[in-house]
Automatic annotation (TrEMBL):
Gene3D superfamilies per the UniProt record, alphabetical: Rod shape-determining protein MreC, domain 1 (2.40.10.340), Rod shape-determining protein MreC, domain 2 (2.40.10.350)
Comp. bias (Polar residues): 334-350
The protein, known as: Cell shape-determining protein MreC
Domain of life assignment: Bacteria
InterPro entries associated with the record: Cell/Rod_1, Cell/Rod_MreC_2, MreC, MreC_beta-barrel_core
Positions of the UniProt region annotated as Disordered: 277-350
Domain named Rod shape-determining protein MreC beta-barrel core: residues: 130-270
Protein family membership: Belongs to the MreC family.
Encoding gene, per UniProt annotation: mreC
Keyword vocabulary terms for this entry: Cell shape
Basic and acidic residues bias locations: 277-290
PANTHER family: CELL SHAPE-DETERMINING PROTEIN MREC (PTHR34138:SF1)
Length: 350
């Protein structure tokens, strides 16, 4: 169609008619005079749209999957490059070597859970933000950090991101009284909620009041919808006490956290959630109990302890008598020698 005066006039007329129909439709509400035409169009074109969609969607999904896979790979590669640079920076001195050890441990945990993490260092603690248990890290929006992302270290769950700046972020620690996270018991899969209690152990409320739980059992995060604020499988802690007076509906536990919240330095923000729930595979291996040493006493068959003691006493008496006899003989010999000396002296006198 050529660009003529008539075509332009027709275009303006169509636009005006469209605006008029939209206005009439909005003012008419449910009783709109164009509702019938809209329903008729939907009945006619709806099946066609569904057919085209069913034919095109598989191709579109395949293209999207390939694109997302490439984006995920590129993002993980970028994270590995950034973490390698941070690792080289940390190993420059003695303190850096300690941080490097923490960083390696954290990378091992992240690898086991397939978490894509952004490494960071703690640059401030709660006093800068108020009375809550919080820390500030040196990674922010420019590093891909967003609000409600999981934060961990080489031991387990540290907390979640609450506020984000261009180059820093604030993390609410898991032991804060306002912190709550869904948990899953190792192996048994019992679900519950862990709440922070400051310097005291976590308070965990299991949803099953009859759950079979014992001291030493371990917990991991259950995970949140869309993996925010918590990804699944992050180690939480070990059961240190089971409340014997639990109710019929829930059961109360005390759980000692894996993380020491007063010794935080190197942490990681989970910027890429795992494609599959790692469940409890991220937990470290349990310590094997040390064998208890045993002492074996062997008794000789037929031996009489009392008779042996009497024989020992008899042997001691005979030795004492022999010694006494020797002493007596020595005294008698000395007496006879003195008598002979006296007789010689008497014969010599004039």
């Amino acid at each position: 169609m050529r660009d003529t005066k008539e075509s332009r006039l027709l275009l303006v007329l169509l636009i005006a008619v469209a605006f008029a129909l939209i206005t009439v439709d909005i003012r008419g509400g449910e009783d709109s005079p164009v509702d019938g035409a809209r329903q008729a169009a939907a009945n006619v074109f709806g099946p066609i749209e569904n057919g085209v969609s069913s034919a095109v969607d598989p191709v579109g999904n395949a293209v999207s999957a390939i694109r997302d896979s490439g984006d995920r790979h590129d993002r993980l590669a970028a994270l590995e490059t950034q973490n390698a640079a941070l690792k080289a920076k940390l190993g420059s001195d003695e303190r850096g070597r300690s941080r490097l050890k923490q960083f390696d441990k954290m990378l091992g945990l992240a690898g086991a859970g397939q978490y894509g993490i952004k490494g960071a260092q703690v640059i401030a603690i709660g006093a800068a933000q108020g009375f809550s248990w919080t820390i500030t890290i040196d990674a922010g929006a420019g590093d891909g950090v967003k609000r409600d992302m999981t934060v961990l270290n080489g031991d387990g769950l540290v907390g979640r991101v609450t506020t984000v700046g261009p180059n820093s972020a604030t993390v609410l620690l898991a032991n804060d009284p306002d912190f709550t996270v869904g948990t899953r018991m190792e192996a048994g899969d019992e679900l519950g909620f862990a709440a922070g209690q400051g310097s005291r152990p976590f308070r965990v409320e299991l949803l099953n009041g009859k759950a079979d739980v014992k001291k030493g059992d371990r917990l991991v995060t259950f995970g949140s919808q869309a993996d925010k604020p918590f990804v699944p499988g992050v180690p939480v802690g070990t059961v240190s006490r089971v409340d014997p007076n639990g109710g019929d509906l829930t059961r109360i536990l005390e759980v000692t956290p894996f993380v020491s919240f007063t010794k935080l330095d190197v942490v990681g923000v989970v910027v890429q959630a795992p494609q599959k729930d790692p469940r409890d595979t991220v937990l470290p291996e349990k310590d094997k109990p040390e064998p208890t040493p045993t002492v074996t006493v062997t008794v000789t068959p037929g031996a009489d302890p009392e008779g042996q003691a009497q024989n020992n006493e008899g042997g001691a008496t005979e030795e004492d008598d022999a010694a006494l006899g020797n002493d007596t003989a020595g005294e008698n010999g000395a007496t006879g020698q003195n008598d002979r000396t006296d007789q010689q002296n008497e014969q010599t006198e004039p």
